[in-house]
Every structure is written in C-alpha cells, then in structure tokens.
Design brief:
There is one protein chain. This protein is an alpha+beta fold. The chain has two domains: 8-37, no CATH class; 41-138, Cupredoxins -  blue copper proteins (Immunoglobulin-like). Helix content is 15%, strand content 36%. The protein is built from two helices and nine strands; from the N terminus they run H-H-E-E-E-E-E-E-E-E-E. It has helices at residues 8-23, 41-45; strands at residues 48-55, 58-60, 65-67, 69-77, 86-89, 92-95, 104-111, 115-120, 132-138. It has a five-stranded mixed sheet, with no helix packed on it. It has a four-stranded mixed sheet with strand order 2-1-4-7, with no helix packed on it. The radius of gyration is 24 Å and the shape is elongated. It starts with 7 loop residues before the first helix and ends in a 6-residue tail after the last strand. Residues 25-43 have low confidence and may be disordered.
Amino acid sequence: MRFLLIPRSLAALLFLLSVLFTCGLAPVGARGLAADDVARADDVAGPLLLEGTLSEYFIYLPQPSGPAGTVRFVVQNIGQRRHNLRVVGNGVDRATPDLRPGQSGEVEVLFADPGPYTVYCDLADHADRGMTTAFVAEDPFTQP
C-alpha cells in the first residue's frame, strides 16, 4: 500500500483552509457585512409567486396566505374596466399600475411582519363593491 506524502506545512494549510471554508472566516458582523447582506431563505429560493385575476368586482388569488417574506403578485385584468391590485398593512403599501382590460401586471411585496394585509383595487368604488380580500403573512416558525 502506498501513501501520498505531502509536506506537513502543506497539510496544515489545506486543513486550515477546509476549516475556514466550512465554518466561515468569521462571524458575519466581524466581516463587516450588515444583516441585509446575508441572503435570506426566500431570496435564495425566490419569492412566492401568486398568479391571480382581477374582474368586476372580484379579486382571485390562489391562496389566502403564505410565509412572511417576499411575495410576487402577478395579476391579469380579465374584466371590462381598469383595475389594479394594492396591498396595505403593517407598514406595507405597494400596488400594481392601473391595468386596462386584458393587461397583466405584477408587484413584489416584502411581508416583514406576520399578520393580515388588505388586498384591494383602489380605483373609484371598486373596493366598496367587493373588490377586496385579505392575505395573511404567516410566521414560518409557528407553522406546523
């Protein structure tokens, strides 16, 4: 049986490099990185994608809740009037552009805090006529 002979200093260097790359060079704060520089799980996997529709006077979303984090709402106006999709609550206020019949639009929303958010069309009296729903951002640590 033959053994590969390498100098001790090279073996020590290889060992040190493997430890540093496996465990990280230093804690995040010590490397000068801010907490925002660290990739979150939803950033790596991509945002939750919810594709829905807008019409007189209804908003369809495929699910009423999802994990807190980034959600991309992609909606198509299948109605006869202009519509949009606005998401508000817990410091969030994001909306698609106004969409003509047949148009699609999207908006990415960062749900930093778990809880309920209002989703509605903010044009004219559309929300009063029923074009409103809720989306609940769930705390991923309390889900079964």
